[in-house]
Amino acid sequence: MEPAAFASFSAACVSDPAFALRRFDSLQVQGAARPRVLLRQLQGQRQQAPGKELMTGLDWLAQLDQRQQLQTLPQPQLHLLAEHDGLVPAELQQALEGFLDGTANARVQVLGGACHLAPLASATELAAATRE
Prior knowledge:
This protein is 56% helix and 9% strand. The protein is mainly α. Strand 1, helix 6 and strand 2 (106-111) form a beta-alpha-beta unit. Helix 1 packs across helix 2 (17-29), helix 1 packs antiparallel against helix 4 (52-63) and helix 2 crosses helix 3. 13% of the residues are buried.
């Protein structure tokens, strides 16, 4: 994510966490076949209003950069991107493949028709790709 967009989202989480989380939810369902159904499912799984854990998670995202470790992991890697992801665009496939070039045990794949919430919206396809 662009640093300015991340900073803007973090500021929104501080000033109005509930609104920021609703906006984030709408980005997660973007590109889904049935976004309203998926949005209700996502929001139904939320146990409570956002608290300190939201900012803790954002702080981790801002500080942690594990990309270099991906090139040295000994175990097989499957990096799944969702075709219609509103947060992590599938167009990153080429850049990620280039980054992992020479990493014999790494593969990048795009889940066709999937959105950011592939574990909820495309569970069967995600399981099949993982099993493969």
